[in-house]
Amino acid sequence: MKAVIQRVTQASVTIKDKQVASINHGLLILLGIVPKDTQEDIKWLTNKITNLRIFNDAEGVMNTSLLQSKGDVIVVSQFTLHANTKKGNRPSYIKAAKPDIAIPLYQDFISQLEKNLGKAIQTGEFGADMQVALLNDGPVTIIIDTKNKV
Fold this sequence. Notes:
The protein has 150 residues and is of the alpha/beta class. The chain has a single domain, classed as D-tyrosyl-tRNA(Tyr) deacylase (D-tyrosyl-trna(Tyr) Deacylase, Chain: A), CATH 3.50.80. The chain has 3 helices and 8 strands; from the N terminus they run βββαββαβαββ. A hairpin with a 2-residue loop joins β1 and β2.
């Protein structure tokens, strides 16, 4: 499971000219899933995201977590995070999980993150053509891959 985490002052997701998600202070999380991902990956990644100290404290130092800062979240599925670009110029997405595997894991990821934060989070729509807008704060962008925990 791979996540691109962006600290934002605002973010939104639009599908077919209809805004389906919108936040101010918080995180936009792009989530890619592979067939070998498990519930353990979900638990580890959601705990890491919840407690990652990437928000500024009163002194302007990144020392506060999403949980502490009471930030909001949008999660967007993005199979292209697992693109293989080693051969030729057309990326291969063969490593990305197919919908029958990815959708339940995506939904479980959202549920676990909501449980960790104690509130609902917003999402895009799995498999949809989405337009994602954001104002990256910092900028702060962090990539986490559950296959590289050590």
